Amino acid sequence: MAIFAFLPPVPPFLFSALVVSSLASKALHIGLHFHSLPFLYLVLYSPTLILPELLIISFVRLFLQFPTPESRLQWISTCLGGLLSLITWGASSIQFGFFMQTGAEVAWAASNSFLSDPAAMKILLSGISTVSAAATVLGLVAWLIHAHLYNLTGIVLQGFRDLMIGAFKARRNILSVPRKSWIASVDIRSARRIALLVSALISLLFLELSRPSIPYDHLSGALPLTLLDAFTKKSSTLEGCRNPAKPFPLWPVEKTSLVDGWSRASWLPQDPPPGFSRWAMSPQQRAEKDNPSYYLCGDDENAFFNPKADPLKISNLDGDIYEPLQKAFQEHSVEINNIVLLTLESGRKEMFPMQQGTPMFDALIASHKEKKKEAAIDRLVKMTPIAQMLTGEYATDSKGEKVDLSEANWQDPAEEGMGGLNVRGALTGSSLTFKSILGSHCGVHPLPVDLLEESMLEIYQPCLPQLLELFNQKKMPKTIEARANNSHTSEALQNQWKSVFMQSITDDYDRQDILDENMGFKHKVVKKTMNAFRSKYKPKGEEINYFGYAETELKPYVRDLFYEAANNKTRVFLSHVTSTTHHPWGTPKSFDKEKYMGSEGAANHDLMNNYLNAARFVDNWLGDIMNLLDETGIANSTLVVIVGDHGQAFGEDNKDMTGTYENGHISNFRVPLVFRHPHMPRIDITANATALAIIPTILDMLVQSQSIDKSDSEIAAALLPEYQGQSLIRPFISSIKEEPPHDHDSQIKNPDEIEVRAPHKNHHGPHTRYVWNFGLINAGGSMISVTAAGTPYRLVLPLREGFEYVFTHLGKDPGELRPTNSWTLSQLINEVLSEYGKDAAEWLEEAEKVGIWWTNEQRRIWGYREA
């Protein structure tokens, strides 16, 4: 029983755990924002920031008394106080554990989505070791001081009580003895104490009322009260009617009609597949739909997405095709019977391929001692040989010589100068995987809210599987028989498309399975189909992370699909998402890891080293896929599109924050974008494009290469202008100068409706229209990244309180090592004006307006509102 002598009494220990946890949490909360807070203001308002904790501590201390067997009420209050203490201890441990993993703080408002998702819980549980470590440290500190802290706070509270009772007695004496002097009846010492207390309370109240709401309201949040955000419902789909579009803030936009689009298109079959309701139904038919996202407010046709009225859309379809591509298309040397779309999880452009000359590469080499740097360079540049061949970006070693790729598991059979399009400068539309996939698969911007709410709504553009299904519906058996007699129509063009989705992990996370179905995938291979009793190929390896297996387990499924296409039974569209490069970056035990990181610097190089090895594993897997295309004989008739879903920030990029969650660092947004075909000329494209360009480029390629028949070409040509992205087989247009429409009064009757914060701008004269790019920052509803093609500026725009504005000049600071942060836009503009000049400050003003407008417009287009 001697061991129990070391255990503290329960109420004092629980109270001490509450005090230590709440104050430590507040210190972390303020410390994460310390760099952006004026020091004098922080000192001045610090009493108001700690006031909620002091009130909670006092409240719980009154509850946590030593209960006696006779006092049932005291038992209840002690249990309640103990529960609050345990909750605070646990929440603070989670905050510190999350901080140790990512450098960020937990957003409790978004946690309810994770807590309700079993697959997401595995992500949270992956950090249980750091949470346990934090809980142990907090508990140890609480144990060391529990007795003194409990007694001290008891004495303080009793002193307040005695002071109040003394004041009450003095007041009673004044009232009961009117003939005596009231001054003589009051204890002078108590009066002074009361006066000081009242003065302190008045001062505190004045500071509370006078302090700026931003950021101090956010900083004053206290555990366990902030946990209530996790249990509040934040959103719902739209019910009743959809509001019309708001005026664009920078210039008037010409009003156009959707009536022609509502009338049935000549190419649309009688029963079109999902995704085409915008063309198929009249407003009256829409109102009869069960899905509330169809509803209109009256007959206002502007309530739905209209590409012709989109002020952010810039089309390049009138431009000429790149001359080498035009020649290849005219010579009919480019045949596209199959499409493979590969999405690289956490696929950073700096690693596709890994080569010298990027901020990331320099940071990796800096982890090595000087005498080992040459060997480190030679090892790193050989890490992704397949990516070098697919992009045509060949790396050089420490001696400046081209890297020998002869040991790679695939060798590019394409002739010199051939291989397709390689885009430099591409950015993701979201650092949450399946929000970014909406751009590559459907050509739409994601919804700026947390997690996959899009899965519960109608996608406002047809996705690629739905487009291909539309082609299929136009090829009814009689039509195929008739076309068989047409010598100008090849047998391959008569085959129907088969859209298949594959990934070696679960699709249960955050309603992905529902989204896959909504995008039009009727066939898929995922973890549960691989593990099914009747699965054709059982996994042979172990699960490598909390989601599932390594990509190589899919190899027999991919081979069968490619042979199906090779036997001229079907035209294949394969969408495959890799997963090994997702945290925790596990690889199969049979995979030999390399030591890419050195020992210099303070960052956790083990995490980066695991990620680099996972990237090498995926590069080898891409080689396997390319070999399967060669093996089955369909490589020369297959377009392979490769895109990253988002990047992955590490301590080598940003010492303050790692990962993607609520981290707006540029390393989470630069991604590769490649259109590989062995018979297309190699063309390097520098453009700030996004995955929105993928569907327009594919459709344009199919039409120009005559890889679809006349009927399908008419459909593709009609749909091309409907998408927001540009076709990358034509020169990318970053911006245009144009005059405002003459009939803008038809849309904006009152010019005052447009708020113009920059009076020096003439928004009714000629203006420059940029291609604005937007990127949601994981989990999607807190911040967005705003850039404009052709400009070096970038804004991280907060959508909720508690997040800062961040401006960077990527031309001068490509690695975002010196961002400019501020809690308010006006302060940020002043700092940017001082450091970067008038042009940057004006761009910042416009970027904020466009970002806010775009956020509201996306919610409207998707038929979504917050509750």
From TrEMBL:
Domain of life: Eukaryota
Domain Sulfatase N-terminal span(s) in chain numbering: 503-701
Keyword rRNA-binding recorded: no
Gene3D superfamilies: Alkaline Phosphatase, subunit A
Transmembrane segments: 40-63, 75-99, 119-145
Pfam entry (one): Sulfatase
The keyword rRNA-binding is assigned to this record: no
Keywords per UniProt: Membrane, Transmembrane, Transmembrane helix
SUPFAM superfamilies membership: Alkaline phosphatase-like
Protein name per its UniProtKB record: Alkaline phosphatase-like alpha/beta/alpha
Organism whose genome encodes this protein: Penicillium frequentans
